[in-house]
Design goal:
One of its GO terms (cellular component) is membrane. The protein is α/β, with parallel strands linked by helices and about 725 residues long. It is built from 29 helices and 10 strands.
Length: about 725
């Protein structure tokens, strides 16, 4: 019996995955959400088709035996929590804050109007559609919520497909859907509290509302810091595989239990946990994609398949139920489209824009199915009413993509909006904008303090988590204590504060303070750096004294340190002719960046612009061309060089930094760079490639520049080259270093 039950359970999972994923793939190829394919796959495996064609086999595999059904239901219920966790992680509250008041107008009318329609409709439904006709108020709350929420996932999918995510209206639509989703889960939580008491009672209702409010306040104050700390601690402390994902699942479970204890549904806890996890500054794309992978691959097909199994479309052969379903679809569509359209018009939108908003908000998708499934499990909705809601969700969701494509296709792009979109597209190619976490190794020397300050300038604009390893002389450790580490920390924070103010002023956004972890080390080796690098960093910045030998080569200690880090490396060095003092970055300071059209050179330009923005410093971009003179004067073509310089100038415009460009043709790269430095550059930022070999070497140009200049030189090195054909890349990068 046990073996048979386990076999049937596996067969159920396999069928749901096979049919759901297969149909989801087909739907996605035709521009429809994959979720709808999974839902329809479950409908086909249920009494609507499989049970109609071969009822014995359908009843055998999807048994109604309570013990057997409980196994697959448990996976489905866990799927609901994981889906809400993922939905919360994809909820970008920063976008809502940035967009402004328009999305609130759309959200409020887009929820209130269809909710009122759904609540009123519940009072006119036949008694046969409700398990308990006396609970029409609770049924109305569920039905109103199901009609009023838009599916953020479906809306975002169509927006992304049409390259509309960055458009002004696209961001308003996504923000409105986020607010609606949040309101919906709050309503469901309160509705669940009402349903547990069987009727609308004033005192329990007030208790539930107050409990939910306190939970939300706690979550977004103390809870936020606690979640950030737990994720960071698990990422940095555990060595076992997928430890952060385990901690995230524990956070979700604990918050779901808290909401259950205060008398509301566990979905609210899972949703809020997802929001907090998604906002964690330490959460990498890799960890997020791993979690999304297991939810998308297993739990989504099982949950939506089980939801489809609970729907029996054969009941729609009854003319009365069929007409009621048509009426439900019409009421849902009119209410949702009308509410969002009204909100758009109240926010000052044109008819075309309000039409696009109304079309987008009419997608129900996963959210309504989850709401209806909760109502069915609580015996608030009957199977027939559940089938009607699922049918409504399928029809409105499938109709939304073509409607939205038609509406968005009629909207022109204004000049200012076009410029903003182009600037944001540049960010996708940016080096600094894609960094998630910095590792910093410095000592008490002037170059160490200067490096700490530069790290703050780079990471402060986005509140980037930074780990500071302060290297301290072992002989002085007992005397100095942690004073050196404190000084370095102050430099990081000073640079971060300067950068945050510049970003906030330029982009009208609030930047959280830099997340800094400081630690004192008596020595730094490949093992020390490798152990720290395992926690996940996008860039290692090193600022140490005496890193160059008398011969101009790099010290063995620096070679050892760099070998422990596989990612991009940033070395801050003093030119051989420098006096040891570091420059003061201020308005009018010039940062020189040599470029040659390679990606490593573009990274250096991006890095230099990030350093220049907080102080409104200038950046001079120098291209040393190897183009050969033609047969006559004026025949040299610099189209490639000019294209490279224009690309950097466009990037500088995004940063709001003034740039000067120059092309030099009658000098080697190192001499041209040295001449430009002599004209008054405060520092040089060079993109270089680390060459394979026993010694730490970045090319002849970088070595020559370090020997010739009297200012700091920042070498931004790409990942260590491990390919056999590395010599080709070395040759291409030689001009810039």
């Amino acid at each position: 019996m046990g073996g048979s039950a386990e076999g049937l359970f596996v067969a159920e999972i396999v069928l749901l995955l096979l049919v759901g994923r297969g149909l989801g793939e087909i739907f996605q190829r035709y521009g429809q959400p994959a979720i709808m394919g999974q839902l329809i796959g479950g409908i086909l495996l249920g009494p609507s088709l499989f049970g109609w064609i071969w009822p014995d086999a359908q009843h055998l595999i999807f048994s109604s035996d309570p013990a057997q059904k409980g196994m697959i239901d448990a996976v489905s219920q866990l799927g609901i929590l994981l889906l809400l966790l993922l939905t919360g992680m994809e909820t970008d509250l920063r976008l809502v804050r940035r967009v402004g008041a328009a999305c609130f107008s759309i959200s409020i009318t887009g929820v209130v109007v269809p909710f009122a329609f759904g609540f009123a409709l519940a009072h006119f439904l036949p008694d046969s559609l409700l398990p308990d006709p006396r609970q029409r108020v609770v049924a109305g709350l569920f039905l109103g919520t199901a009609l009023s929420i838009s599916s953020v996932k479906i809306v975002a999918m169509v927006m992304r497909e049409m390259n509309f995510m960055r458009r002004n209206l696209g961001q308003v639509i996504i923000s409105s859907a986020i607010i609606e989703d949040t309101i919906g889960w709050l309503v469901i939580a309160i509705t669940f509290g009402i349903a547990t008491h069987g009727s609308l009672q004033v005192v329990p209702l007030i208790t539930t509302v107050v409990s939910v409010a306190l939970f939300m306040v706690f979550s977004f104050t103390v809870g936020r810091r606690l979640v950030f700390t737990l994720i960071r601690w698990s990422n940095d402390s555990f060595r076992s595989e997928c430890a952060v994902i385990t901690v995230i699942l524990i956070i979700m479970g604990v918050m779901a239990l808290i909401t259950n204890l205060i008398g509301v549904h566990t979905v609210l806890g899972a949703f809020v946990a997802g929001i907090l996890v998604g906002e964690s500054p330490i959460l990498s794309d890799h960890i997020e994609s791993q979690l999304r992978g297991v939810i998308t691959a297993l739990f989504m097909p099982v949950f939506f398949g089980m939801a489809g199994l609970s729907a029996d479309l054969t009941v729609l052969t009854d003319p009365t139920l069929a007409l009621l379903t048509v009426a439900l679809v019409a009421i849902a569509s009119i209410g949702k489209f009308g509410g969002a359209f009204l909100g758009g018009r109240l926010a000052g939108m044109s008819l075309k824009e309000a039409t696009a908003v109304g079309s987008a908000m009419n997608a129900r998708g996963s959210t309504e199915v989850i709401v209806a499934s909760i109502g069915l499990s609580m015996n608030i909705l009957s199977h027939n009413l559940f089938t009607m809601i699922v049918t409504m969700a399928v029809i409105t969701t499938l109709a939304m993509p073509p409607m939205l494509r038609w509406a968005l296709g009629r909207l022109p792009v204004g000049h200012a909006e076009k410029q903003r979109v182009e600037r944001e597209l540049l960010d996708e190619r940016g080096f600094v904008s894609r960094l998630e976490r910095l590792l910093l190794l410095v000592d008490d020397s002037p170059v160490g303090k200067f490096t700490a300050y530069l790290a703050g300038l780079v990471g402060g604009g986005s509140g980037m988590p930074t780990t500071l390893l302060h290297l301290q002389d072992g002989e002085l450790a007992g005397q100095l204590g942690d004073k050196g580490s404190e000084r370095a920390s102050r430099e990081v924070k000073k640079g971060a504060a300067r950068s945050a103010r510049a970003v906030s002023k330029a982009e009208d956004t609030l930047v959280d303070k830099v997340h800094l972890t400081a630690r004192t080390e008596l020595q730094a080796s490949a093992e020390t750096i490798a152990a720290e690098a395992r926690k996940g960093y996008g860039l290692l910045l090193v600022g140490l004294e005496n890193t160059l030998t008398d011969k101009g080569t790099f010290s063995g200690a620096l070679k050892d340190i760099s070998s422990g880090f596989d990612g991009p490396l940033c070395l801050v060095l003093n030119g051989a002719k420098a006096n040891g003092k570091m420059p003061a970055l201020r308005a009018g300071t010039t940062i020189l960046v040599p470029v040659n059209g390679t990606e490593v050179a573009r990274r250096a330009a991006d890095f230099a612009l990030a350093l220049a923005r907080p102080h409104r410093a200038r950046v001079k971009v120098l291209y040393v061309s190897q183009a050969r003179q033609g047969s006559g004067p004026g025949t040299v073509s610099h189209r490639r060089e000019e294209a490279v310089l224009k690309d950097v100038a466009d990037l500088a415009d995004r940063y709001g930094v003034a740039v000067d460009t120059a092309i030099r043709t009658r000098a080697t790269a190192d001499r041209a760079i040295a001449r430009e430095v002599a004209k008054g550059a405060a520092m040089v930022v060079m993109g270089v490639t680390q060459r394979p070999g026993e010694e730490l070497f970045f090319g002849d140009t970088a070595t020559a520049v370090l020997a010739a200049v009297a200012c700091p030189v920042v070498l931004l090195a790409s990942e260590r080259v491990k390919r056999a054909d590395a010599n080709a890349e070395d040759a291409a990068a030689e001009i810039s270093g």
